[in-house]
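Hey, can you fold this one?
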Amino acid sequence: MLNIQILNEKQIDFYNFSIKNIKIFEKFSLKEIAKKFGCGISFIYKYFEILGISGIKEYIVCINLIISKKENLKELLVNNNGGFLDDELSYYFIEQMNQVDIIKKQTRSINNFKNYLRQSRKVYGIAFGHSKLAIQDFLGFYSYINKNCEFLNCDSKIDFKNYIEKKSLIIIYSIRFANKKLFKILDILNKLQDVKLLLVTSNKLIDYKYGLNEIIYIDNVMKNIDNININYYIGPLNSFILLNNFLKAELFEDNKSILMKNKSFLKETIGWKNYKEIENIK
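Sure. Predicted structure:
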């Protein structure tokens, strides 16, 4: 799968043009393709370079593979009573698959995150708006592994200096990383000793200058709505869901022996599938 999350808007337009007009790429030269799209050949070469594509032949193979996966997924959805999902929404699910690839490519950051979790006495979560729902979703699961989890309601006044425990991890979820209140909080947190800061965001323009120990990047799925003409509302929470599920799966495997002995965890998870089965767990 091509990592289209690193492309700018015009490059995304070219990617969508490729999906819809792959036959043009199979029949015409790069010069003619550039003319039909309305760009120079240098734009296409730069586009290939960003995606790590050697040339037009490799690109055609990649696009045809994406189209094939899209059609297979659409057929699977329809065959499983998903007929209400039209072509555009099916394409959205393909983009979700792209997001999984993005997450997997951040193995080092994911492993660092897991190490911070293991090494921390307490785990705090900070977020605002829709991001708040996402961090609470993750902490709700992780609290079965480490009870010392807490969501910090930063809409209330908190004396961070005296409240945050040492050897703690503070997880920050922020889709845009543009909240001024969050920046003020980071200024305070950076003065604390023996505290790790991890950020999950879609803003790829930031760096570690905010005193962050690790950054995990996710896709801003709202940006894809106009690109693929989806006539559905997709909120910011969706940007975090795949990462949360990926992390939960990894942490479940790492802590399976603990979780399978946790009656509270079993009651909740088994209860999602079988309401009667939870009666047997005492």
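The radius of gyration is 22 Å. Let me know if you want another pass with a different chain boundary.
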